[in-house]
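Aim 2 progress update. The chain analyzed this quarter is reproduced below.
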Amino acid sequence: MIDQDKPATTELVVTQRPKSVLLDMANRYGMEPVPFEATVRAICMPANSTREEFAAFLLVAKEYKLNPLTKEIYAFPKRGGGIVPIVSIDGWVSLVNSHPACDGFTFSWMQDDKGDPISCTCIMFRKDRSHPVEVTEYLAECIRPTDPWKMKHRMLRHKAMIQGARYAFGFSGIYDEDEGAKIAEAPPIKDITPPSPPSPPPAPTIISETSNEGGKINTAADDASDDDSGLTAEPETVDQFIARIDTELSFCRSASDVEEGFDGLEIPVHLENDADRARAFAIKAKHLDRVGVPFPGDTRP
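Predicted structure tokens:
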């Protein structure tokens, strides 16, 4: 029976909708989502990019707090489909200067008799480290036959600064334009898992006729040998390759060793799948953290 003297109450359940990365990024720059998407697609994305690729691009921009409207970050079309996130030199400078541990950076040069650059060294200082990170880039290893490289000093300084930023602060999964172009042009390896080998032929059956009391014909199968001579080693599977990344990086004792070891494995070339690449970068972040370099977003002293 309902108590007439007791006022009826209505329970209001409010369900909060998850916030999309598009809405979050549009709000960050004071724009409506639809014109924000149209603007970013027009200035930063390949014409045929999918919504999934656009969302992935925005997630990277959000993670590193880079502004796509000023092209601090933009996307390169990748051969065979997909995109490569490219960070301009303005974006790299913004990443370094906005990091809470940044304590400035300087450059030093080695030049030949004509004044042309041989190498450039970037020295990155962190407030939470007693020793700076020094990275040297050599012109002979970096120069490309493009118009920007006609300004050799400037471009080599950019290269040294970007590599110094990676070693000092552990930035990963983003590239400069030269690196992005190389990755975008590389043919993808769709699957490194070898096909199953054909089944061996059945062992021959040797039939011998032997006189016995019953007058029957006896049969016996010849044992197959296990000779492995002449066989070639099978290629690695994706899981084996990722396990090898963890094994090789476990021997590294410094951030520069981790970076060099990771770069030497050519992850973007050998792993096309975004989920597999994410596993590889997670392993790299783990080892950077192990040697004392926090991954992006970690502000521990």
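Residues 238-290 form one domain. DSSP finds eleven helices and seven strands in the chain. These observations will guide the mutagenesis experiments scheduled for the next reporting period.
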